[in-house]
Amino acid sequence: MRRKLSVRDWPEQERPLIKAKERGFQALSDAELLSILLRVSSYEQDEVTFAREIIGKAGSLRKLFEVPDLLPGHKRIELEAVRELGRRILRENIIGQNFVRSPQAVTDYLTASMRDLKREVFKCLFLDKALRITGERDLFIGTIDEAAVHPREIVKAALEFNASSIVLVHNHPSGKVEPSREDYEITQKIKAACLTVSIRVLDHIIIGENQHFSFSERSSL
Questions:
Q1: How many Å is the Cα radius of gyration of the chain?
Q2: S-S: 204 plus which of 104, 184, 209, 215, CB 3.0-4.6 Å?
Q3: Among 67-76, 93-102, 187-196, the range of highest mean pLDDT
Q4: Each residue of 51-88: pLDDT tens digit?
Q5: CB-based burial of residue 136 (10 Å sphere; 0-12 exposed, 13-18 middle, 19+ buried)?
Q6: Residue ranges per domain, the chain?
């Protein structure tokens, strides 16, 4: 009786799970890692070959999430859950961290959570007097301009968090990070509004495709 192909028929030392146990997960290829999660094979393809094929069709691991028809519904849900767990782990890494001393952890989290968004999202990070990040909040969705972003709402949120300073963040779905004229204008308006209640705007970060723009680093605040 014909049966499905499987990596269980491979030499033991080449099977992804055995390789991971002996050499660590970092030793696995993208397809091998994905095969462990999906566990999908057929009469024509073992688990790794199937995983390699769908990565090729999508173009990359990240783009798997943009092509819904490549995976069965329940497997797509499992992958989405894994991605969200990764984001939450990165978020845990920044809460309580000193913003000035941990810039890479902050930008890693912001990039992972915002670079693939299809619409602009404006959020704030809230910091205490020691510049530790105490929380974050998505505040506005849509084009970032004076009509969409209300400085008073940012001040209100900062006061709720008892923040001494804040970091403004938004994404550019285009992937380009160069600030627009509206980005500069709203940054100054928010900065002025926050100063009325003695809250500092430490930075405004724009997230793009694996890159970011920092107003503070460019002396644009």
A1: 22
A2: 215
A3: 187-196
A4: 999 999 999 888 888 887 888 788 889 888 998 998 89
A5: buried
A6: 15-71, 98-214
Residues 112-125 have a mean pLDDT of 91
Q: What pLDDT does 102 receive?
A: 86
Tell me the average pLDDT of the chain. Answer: 90
Query: Could you tell me the CA-to-CA distances from 50 to 13, 25, 71, 77 in Å, in that order?
Result: 20, 19, 10, 18
Q: Is 24 left (phi over 0), alpha (psi -120 to 50) or beta?
A: left
Of the candidates 127, 131, 141, 206, which has an alpha carbon nearest to the alpha carbon of residue 174?
A: 206
pTM greater than 0.85:
no
Backbone angles phi, psi at 92, to 5 degrees: -60, -35
The CATH class, in words, for 98-214 is alpha beta
Angle at 44 between CA 41 and CA 47, to 5 degrees: 25
The DSSP output letter for 10 is S
- Give dist(CA 168, CA 216) in Å, integer: 11
Report the C-alpha gap between 196 and 20 in whole angstroms. Answer: 56
